[in-house]
Amino acid sequence: MPVLLVECPDQRGLVHAISGVLLRHDGNVVGNHEFVDAQNGRFYMRTEFDGPWTGDAHEVGERIVAETLAVLPAGARVRLARSVPKRIVVLASREHHCLGDLLLRHQFGGLNARIEAVISNHAVLGDLVGKFGVPFHHVPAEGMDRTAHEAAVAALLEPIGPEFLVLAKYMRVLSPAFVARYPSRIINIHHSFLPAFIGAKPYHQAFQRGVKVIGATAHLVTDDLDAGAILVQHVIPVDHTHAAQDLVRAGRDVEQFALAQALRLVFEDRVFLAGNRTVIFD
Amino acid sequence: MPVLLVECPDQRGLVHAISGVLLRHDGNVVGNHEFVDAQNGRFYMRTEFDGPWTGDAHEVGERIVAETLAVLPAGARVRLARSVPKRIVVLASREHHCLGDLLLRHQFGGLNARIEAVISNHAVLGDLVGKFGVPFHHVPAEGMDRTAHEAAVAALLEPIGPEFLVLAKYMRVLSPAFVARYPSRIINIHHSFLPAFIGAKPYHQAFQRGVKVIGATAHLVTDDLDAGAILVQHVIPVDHTHAAQDLVRAGRDVEQFALAQALRLVFEDRVFLAGNRTVIFD
Amino acid sequence: MPVLLVECPDQRGLVHAISGVLLRHDGNVVGNHEFVDAQNGRFYMRTEFDGPWTGDAHEVGERIVAETLAVLPAGARVRLARSVPKRIVVLASREHHCLGDLLLRHQFGGLNARIEAVISNHAVLGDLVGKFGVPFHHVPAEGMDRTAHEAAVAALLEPIGPEFLVLAKYMRVLSPAFVARYPSRIINIHHSFLPAFIGAKPYHQAFQRGVKVIGATAHLVTDDLDAGAILVQHVIPVDHTHAAQDLVRAGRDVEQFALAQALRLVFEDRVFLAGNRTVIFD
Amino acid sequence: MPVLLVECPDQRGLVHAISGVLLRHDGNVVGNHEFVDAQNGRFYMRTEFDGPWTGDAHEVGERIVAETLAVLPAGARVRLARSVPKRIVVLASREHHCLGDLLLRHQFGGLNARIEAVISNHAVLGDLVGKFGVPFHHVPAEGMDRTAHEAAVAALLEPIGPEFLVLAKYMRVLSPAFVARYPSRIINIHHSFLPAFIGAKPYHQAFQRGVKVIGATAHLVTDDLDAGAILVQHVIPVDHTHAAQDLVRAGRDVEQFALAQALRLVFEDRVFLAGNRTVIFD
User: Fold this and answer.
1) pLDDT tens digits, one per residue of B44-85
2) Does the beta carbon of A97 lie under 8 angstroms from any beta carbon of chain C?
3) From B33, which residue of chain C is nearest by alpha-carbon distance?
4) Structural domains of chain B sorted by starting position, each given as residue range(s) with its CATH number in brackets
5) What pTM did the predictor assign?
6) Active site residue B253
7) Does any CB of chain B come closer than 8 Å to the CB of residue A184?
8) What is the DSSP string of chain A?
9) Residue C51: its pLDDT value, please?
10) Which residues of chain C from 19 to 58 reach within 8 Å of chain B, CB to CB?
C-alpha cells in the first residue's frame, strides 16, 4: 500500500488540501497521522492509502506527489514510499545477539528489508552469517588507520548501494566523512539509555554509578558520537546483585529488542527527522 | 480550545470533507487524530482547532457541528466538546488511596473536572473529603437491600446531575438499572489486569495463582461486572515474597495511577466507545 | 560452582545448621537466598558456594548433601546442582521466533543447556534447525490420534533421556500421561498473561476484549492446560490500532523474551516449586 | 519485629556465626537477606526475627548486637533497627504532588514515618499542609544568601532533631556544610533518570534531546549535586507529541511513585550504602 509522506511549514488548510489531492485520484485513506510541531511551525503527515489504479500505479504516484507539492507552501518535502523491502547492509563486530536476531527476522520475512551483506571488522561472526546465506565480508581494522579501514568498507558498499546501514553492535566510531555519505540513513544501537553513559563501556559506567535501570537506545548516526536523533529506547530494572558483566548480559535482550523495533519503524517509513528529534507515526 | 468529535461509517473523502467545514469557518487545526476500524467499517476522528472568533463562539460551534453532520453519511455522530471541567461525583467505600489522589489533583486543578460530591457507603473517608472542602455523603448500606441503597444514592445525585460517576474503589456492585442512568459515563478502577481475576478479592486470586505481574484496569461500567470497555491498564512485577496483603499494598499505586490516567483521557474527550472496545486519541 | 538446594518444613535454626555443614567442609558461601513460606510453614534455601576441594569434589558434594539432610527435619529435600548444561529437547510447531531465539543462544553458549534435538509436528522449521547442526525430527500429527502421536514423540525421547522438555510454541496439548513422565520438567510459553485468555487464540481473545496490555507467560506444564506454576510473565502496552494480527506480531518479542528468561532461571537451578506457585531466587 | 543489620569485611562462616547468635537467644529468623560485594570483599546482611522475649526486649537486642559484633571481623557495623516510625521533616518548594502524596500516606499510616514538620521556601503549600495538621514553616529565601537561609532552616530543625530529611521537589541546592549534618539521611527526588540530565530543568533537557523515555530518580544527597547513591528509578515512555510541559506533567506521577517507594525502603531499614551504590534488600 502506498504511503504519502509530507513535511512542510505549518499553515491553515494543509490536511484539507492534501486529502483533496488524494480524493481527486480516488485514493482511499486507510491510515492517517499528522503532527504539528508548534514550536517550530512545522507540519508532518503520513498517509496510507489505496486506490482503484490498475496499470501504471507508479505514474499515478508521481502525479500525486507533484500535485501535493503544488498545494503546499514553499519548503515542503513530499515523498511516496514504495512498499518494497529496503536494501540494507549490516555492520557488526564480535557480538552476535543483535545480528543473529536480525538474521532470523530476515530469514522469516519479518524485517521488511533485504540484508545485502554483513561487514565486520572481526571474522568471528562469519559462520553465523553464512548459515543464513547472507554474504559476509571480513574487513580487519588492525594495523590500519580509520581512513583506510573505512575506504575498504566503502569499496564493498559501493557496488551494493544500500539504502540503510545498520550498526548491530559495531564497535568502531565512524568518521564524519563516512557518515556524510548516508545522511540519516545509518541506524545504531547504543547500549545505554542516552544521554546517560555516552561513549565506551556504558554498562561499566552504569555499574559504577549504581543505577537501578539500564537501557538501550536505537538512534540515527550523526557526526557527533551517540548524539543522533533517538528512535527507540527501552529499559529494564537492575539491582545491586548485577555486577558489570551481569548488566552486559541483561542488556542484550533489550538492545536487540530496541534495534529491531527501530528498524521496523524506519523500514516502514514511519520516521521523520525534525532537527535532532524524531517524529514517529506508529 | 474546541474539540470536534466525529464517528460515522467509513467512506472515501471523510477527512477532506470534515477539514473543509473547519476551513470554511477559518478554523485552524492544531491536533488531529483519525482511526478507521476496518473490521467494522467505522471512522473515528478527533480534531482540536482554534479560530478567529470573537463574540458568540458557541454559535459558530453549533454551525460547525451542523455542517459537519451534513457532509457525513447517515449514522454519523458529531459533537463539539466544551473545554470546561466536567462535573463529577465520586463513589468510594473504605479505601482512601484513589480518592485521596483524586482530591489532591482536584485541589490543584489537575483533574479537568469538578468533584461535586463524594458519596460513600462508609463514614470513614468523610474526614479526608472534608479537608478538601468537598461535600461528603455517607449512605450506609447495612440492613438495606441494593435497590433501597441505590435509591438513596440516586436521590443525592438527582439535584447534582453529574456528567460522570467515578468509582474510586467503590466496593459495591451497581444494578443494571442504576448503570443504565449513566450510559458509558461511569468509570471504575478494578484491581486486576482484566480479564484476569474478575470479581471479588483479585489480589487473593492472584496470590493463589502465583502470578509474577499484577495490575489494575480502569474501565467503563456496563451491566456485566468488570466486563465494560477498558480505558487503561497498568501492571507491576511481583514475586513469591509478596503475600496477598503485599499485593494489595503494591497494587494501590498502580490503581490510583491507572484511574487518574483514565480520567484524564475521558475528561479531555479523548475516548470513543467502539462496541466493547475503546478508541483513545492521546 | 556447586549450588545447594534445600526445601523443608520451617523450624528455628535451619540457616545456622545448614551453614554449619558447609563450614565444616570449608565451603565458602558466595551467594545465599532463603525464603520462608509462612502460610505453609515451609523453608526454601539456595546456596552457591565454593571450596578448596581438589580431586573428588563429587564425593564432597555427596557428603554435604547427606550431612545437610541429617540436620534437617523430616520431609526435607536436599539437592546439589551440578554446574553442567542441562540436556533438553525442544518441541515446536510452525512458529519460528522462540525456537530461533533458543538456537541462537544455544549456538553461542548462552542457554546453559544442550539442545539434544528439536521435535516438531510440522516440517517447516527443519531447515532452520539444520542450520545450527541440531537434530530435527518431524513427527506429523495429521491422521493420528493424540496417543499415537505422543507415542511417536516418546519413542524419540526415550534414547535421549532429556532432563527438560521446552515447548517453544508447540501448539498441541499434551496428555496427562505424557506430562507425568516429566514432572515439573516441561516448560511452556503461553501467549497471554495467564490466567487471562487461557486456551486457544489468546491474542484474538485479547483483541475482542479490548485490552490495553498483552503479555506472555512461561510456566511449568501440569495436566491442567495453562494452569501450571508460573515462572515468568512479561507484558507490553497495546492500543486500538492493533488488530489481532498486530497483537500476534507484537507479542512475539515478549514471548521469546519471557521463555528465554524462564529457561535461564530453571537451568541455573533457581526455581523451587511450592504447590502451584514458584519460589525463584535470582 | 526487630531487624538486625550487619555490614563487614567478607570472610568464611559469617552467616553461620550470626545465625548462631540469634539462635542462642531463641530468635526465630523470619526473613533473611545477604549479599557479598565480591569486588570490594564486603558482606551485607539484613535479618528479620522474632523471639519469645517478654519484658525488656531492648536489653536482649543490645546483647544480640554486642554478641554479633564479637563474632565478626574488625570493621563490622551492627545495628538493630527499631520498628517505630522514623521522625522526618519534609522540605518542599512550590510543587505539590510529591508532598501531597506523602501527606496522604502519612495520614493513613502508610509512610512508616512521622512527619514532624514541612519547611518550604515558598508559602503556597502551607494551606495543603495545614489540612493534614502538620506544622508548616515558611522560610523565604529571597533576598537572603544561601548560608543565611540554611541557618534559618537549621534553626527550625534543631529542636526537632529529625532522623531523615526528605526533599519533596525542594528546588534549592543544599550546601556541603548543611548536607554534612545529615550524612546519608537526606533523600531527594530528581526528575530525570540520573545520570542523564543532571541539574536544572531536566524535562526541558529531555525534550531538547528527543528522548523516548523519561524518568525519576530517588537518591541520597551528597555534596555533589545529583551524584548521591541511587535508591529507586522509574521511567515512562514518551514521544514527539510531548512538549516540554507535557513531560513535566507526565513525570509527576513517576516522581511521586519513585519517592514513595524509596522512602518505604529507607524507613523499613532495607538500604545499605556501599560506597556510592546502594544495596537494597526488599
Assistant:
1) 999 999 888 766 677 888 999 999 999 999 999 999 997 799
2) yes
3) C241
4) 3-81 (3.30.70.260), 86-280 (3.40.50.170)
5) 0.95
6) no
7) no
8) --EEEEEEE--TTHHHHHHHHHHHTT-EEEEEEEEEETTTTEEEEEEEEE----S-HHHHHHHHHHHHHHHSPTT-EEEEE--SPEEEEEEE-S--HHHHHHHHHHHTT-SSEEEEEEEESSSTTHHHHHHTT--EEE---TTS-HHHHHHHHHHHHHHH--SEEEESS--SPPPHHHHHTSTT-EEEEESSSTTTT-SS-HHHHHHHHT-SEEEEEEEE--SSTT-SPEEEEEEEE--TT--HHHHHHHHHHHHHHHHHHHHHHHHTT-EEEETTEEEE--
9) 83
10) 35, 37-39
